[in-house]
Amino acid sequence: MKDGHAGDGGLMSRNWAIELRNVSKMFGESTALENVSLDIARGEFFSLLGPSGCGKTTMLNLIGGFAVPSRGDVMIEGRSVADVPPYERPVNTVFQSYALFPHMTVAENVKFGLRMKGVGRAERQAVAAEMLRMVSLSGYEGRRPGQLSGGQRQRVALARALVNRPSVLLLDEPLGALDLRLRKQMQVELTRLQRQVGITFVYVTHDQEEAMAMSDRIAVMDGGRLLQVGTPGEIYDRPSHRFVMEFIGAANSFAGRLGGRRGDIGEVDLDGVGRVRGRIAGQIPEQARVALLVRPEKMVLSSANDTTHDAAISGTLAHVSHLGFVTHYTVRLAQGQDVLCYRLNDRLEAGAGPLAEGQRVVLSWNEEDARIFPADCEP
Amino acid sequence: MTVSIAKQIRRRAGRVFIPLCGVLGLAFLYIPVFFLVLFSFNDHIIPSLPFRGFTLKWYEELGYDFVMHEALYNSLFIAFWTTLISTTLGTLAAFPLVRRSYRFKGTSQLLILLPMIIPHFLMGVALLIFFSFLHLPLSRLTVILGHVVFTMPFAIMVVSTRLHGFDRTLELAAADLGANPRRTFWHIVLPIIMPGIAGAALLVFALSMDEFLITYFVSGQKGTLTMYIWSLLKDGIAPRVNALASVLLLASFVLLLVGNWLSSSVAGGRR
Fold this sequence. Notes:
heterodimer, A: about 375 residues, alpha+beta, Rossmann fold, CATH 2.40.50.140, 2 domains, 6-stranded mixed sheet, 5-stranded mixed β-barrel, B: about 270 residues, mainly alpha, MetI-like fold, 11 helices, about 75% helix, globular
C-alpha cells in the first residue's frame, strides 16, 4: 500500500478507490477543508486522523455525497461524483450513532440496501443471513435495534453497510460510543473483517492509537488541512509537522535557534541548555527560531558521571514512576523545564543501574531521532 | 427531638395528604360521568336519586330512535372526512414548520396555531358569514370545512412533536443505502412518525364528534349527534341521553385504548 502516490498518471489511477483533487469546503465564512488532495488505494484500510473540527468528517461527507465540495473534484473508482447523489454512489457508511432504523428488525435493517437495489427476496434473505453470520449476529434477525447492546448495534450497522458490497466503506468514529474493552475487541474484529471482504475502508477517528493499530495508511489533519499521509511507522518516526509529532505519541519540545547544518542534520542552540543536533523537517533558514522535539522513548538516560555523550543535556531526576514493563522518568533541567524519558524494563536497560530521584543525570539521543521544526506555532 | 417529631408528622401527612389529593382530583373528574352512566340504567323517567331499579330499556329505546341513527351517521360521516383532510394537511404542514427555516417562520407558526384559541362561537359566526358571502349552501360539506379549520392546528401540533424527535441521520442512512428521497419518505420517515399521525387522527376524530357550536352555525338540514342531544335536552333531561352518552363514552374509551396500543406497539422498537 505504501508506494504509488499521486502523479503516477492516468493508467495508475485505476488503482485508486478514491481521489480528491484540490478539494475545499467552505461553510459560509469558515473553511472546513482547505485545498486537500488525497488518493486512497483499493482494498486499503485508510484512516483520517485529527482532533475534532479538523475537517475529517467533512471529508467523509464529501465522499459519501452528504456535502458538495466548494472547489475541486471527488472521484470514486476513477469517476467524478460531483453530480451523483448519495443514493447512487457505490459507497456505504457506518454512522457514528449507527442510525439503525428503529421500526425495523435486525434482518430488515440489513436487507434494506438490497431491497432498494431491487434484489430478489430469496437472495436478500440468503445474503443478509450470511452477512449476519460474518458479524456473529446469527439468531438476532428478529430483534429490534432497541433490544440490542451498543456492540451489537455496531455490528448490525456494519452488516447493513457491507451487505451491499460497496466499493468503499466509510466509518465515522464507529467505536466512539463503546467502552474501552469492547473498543479494543472491535478494533481487532474490524481489521479481520476488512481483510476478509477486501473492501476499501475509510475510517475517521480522533484516537491516534486506534488509527495506528488498524490502518494501512493514515492521513493526519488539522484545521482543515491535510498535514501528512503515510503508514503508521512513517507518521510516527518521520512526522512532517510539529503537530503530527505531538498528536501521535508523546514528545519533549525544546525551544532554540538553528545554528549550522550538515545535510538535513542541524545544530540547535537550545535556550539556556546547550548545543544539540537533530534532523531538520522541511525548509528552515539558519538562525531561525526552531523547536526541537524528541520522543521520550528515544531519550537515553544515564548518570552524570558518565561523560561519553557529546549531544547531551543535563538535569536532575525529579520523579520516577515504575509502570511495570516501562519506567517513566521526569528530568528537571537547570532552567526549570521538565523532560520526560521512558525506559523499557528489559535486561539490557536494567544493566545501566538504578537511578534515584534527586540524582544528577544526563539526557542524550541519536541525532536521527530528534526532529527540528519551525517555531511558528510555539505554545 | 421536637424537630424530628415535627418532621415525622410532616412525612406522615405527606404520605396521606398527597394520595388523598389524587383521589379527590380523580373523583372530581369522574363522579359526573359515573352518575351519567348510573342513571342510564335507572328505571325512572327522571334521572335522579334514589335509584329505582336496574333497566336496559333506555338502551333499547336508542335502537328504535331513527332520528338519532341519522344524526350518528352524519356525525361519523363528518368526523371521517374531517379526520382525513385535517390529518393529511396537518402532516404536510408539519414538515416545513419543523424542518425548514424561512422568513416569518415564527409568525406563521403562531398564525397556524391561533385557531385553537379562537372561541368556537366566534368562529361559527365568522364561517356562517363567509359561507353566505360565497353563496355556499349550508350542508355537511360546510360542517366538514368548519371542523377542518378548528382541528387542523391540533393535528399540526401532534405531528410536529413527533417530527421534532425524528433523528435525521436516519434519512442520511437511507440515502446511503440507496433509497431516493421518495422511498426514504415511504420506508423510513412515514412509518416512524406514524404513531404521531395516528394520534393526531384520533384527536381530530374525537374533537369533530364532540363539536357543537361551530356545527350549530354552519350545518344545514342534517344535524349531528351533539345537535340531536341538544334538541332532546330542550324538553328536560331524558334518560335516553344518558344511555346514548354512555355508549359514546364506551366508544371513546375503546378508541383511546386502541390508540394507545397502536402507538406503543409501533414505537416499541424505538432506541
